[in-house]
């Protein structure tokens, strides 16, 4: 089951670079409800699940560069966000079909908007799954930093198929967390949502403001992730 090739064959275009794929066991997701209130485990969503396929679709330098200047997101950044969410749904549909043809069960999770609107925390966190699978580590900006940086989108798919399960990386990819002076992401957030930890309400209010900027609905920002050392690569 060459899932990495299946995903790689779909992700083609000027806005994306090569995707990164990893896998985390269903058992490893049992820790998530202790970290995030009301978070689900893989088996709660799909009975007898063995694990989760997790992948990151990184944006190109062109997309990231368009979102560096100014306080509001670029139209290209917003377009890439929507286009990639659509791509994630297509990827999950394709992988599900292929694995189900082999006798396995799958559950395709949504790329976004699966969160509690009161505490603003997801019940199925792609970022935490990416961390558990060894895809990357959390940055000071709370984004996942991968070998290809933090600018892009994460997707996941729960399955009863078996894979070589990954585990959290021992090496931090965030410069600040390695004890190196940086905090560029904090400086980049014009709302100050990272000044004292992560202020979810400030961040979310910015997304809602930005959603009114374009003729299509895109609640995006990404300023803390663009124009920083970890935008396009692991900086260490």
Mean pLDDT, rounded to whole units? Answer: 96
CATH topology, what is it called? NADH Oxidase
| Helix percentage | 25-40%
CATH architecture: 3-Layer(aba) Sandwich
Low-confidence stretches: none
Structural class: alpha+beta
Shape: globular
SSE order, one letter for each helix or strand: HEHHEHHEEEHEEEHH
**Count of domain modules:** 1
Main beta-sheet strand count, sense and barrel state = 4 strands, antiparallel
**Number of helices, counting only DSSP H or I runs of 4 residues or more:** 8
Q: Provide the CATH top-level class.
A: Alpha Beta
Rg over alpha carbons: 17 Å
**Widest beta sheet: strand line-up:** 1-2-8-3
Tell me the strand percentage band. 5-15%
Q: What distance lies between the first and last C-alpha atoms, to the nearest angstrom? A: 32 Å
Care to count the β-strands?
A: 8
């Amino acid at each position: 089951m060459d899932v990495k090739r299946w995903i790689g064959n779909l992700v083609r275009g000027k806005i994306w670079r090569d995707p990164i794929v990893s896998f985390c066991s269903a058992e490893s997701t049992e820790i998530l409800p202790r970290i995030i209130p009301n978070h689900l485990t893989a088996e709660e969503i799909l009975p007898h699940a063995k694990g989760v396929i997790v992948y990151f679709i990184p944006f190109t330098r062109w997309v990231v560069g368009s979102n560096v200047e100014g306080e509001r997101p670029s139209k290209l950044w917003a377009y890439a966000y929507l286009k990639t969410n659509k791509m994630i749904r297509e990827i999950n549909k394709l992988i599900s079909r292929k694995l189900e043809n082999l006798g396995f069960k799958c559950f395709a999770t949504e790329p976004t908007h699966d969160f509690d609107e009161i505490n603003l925390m997801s019940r199925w966190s792609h970022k935490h799954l990416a961390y558990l699978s060894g895809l990357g580590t959390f940055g000071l900006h709370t984004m996942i930093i991968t070998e290809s940086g933090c600018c892009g989108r994460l997707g996941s798919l729960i399955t009863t198929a078996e894979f070589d399960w990954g585990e959290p990386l021992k090496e931090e990819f965030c410069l600040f967390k390695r004890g190196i002076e940086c905090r560029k992401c904090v400086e980049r957030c014009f709302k100050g949502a990272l000044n004292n930890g992560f202020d979810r309400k400030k961040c979310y209010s910015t997304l809602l403001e930005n959603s009114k900027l374009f003729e299509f609905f895109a609640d995006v920002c990404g300023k803390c992730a663009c124009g920083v050392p970890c935008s396009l690569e692991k900086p260490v």
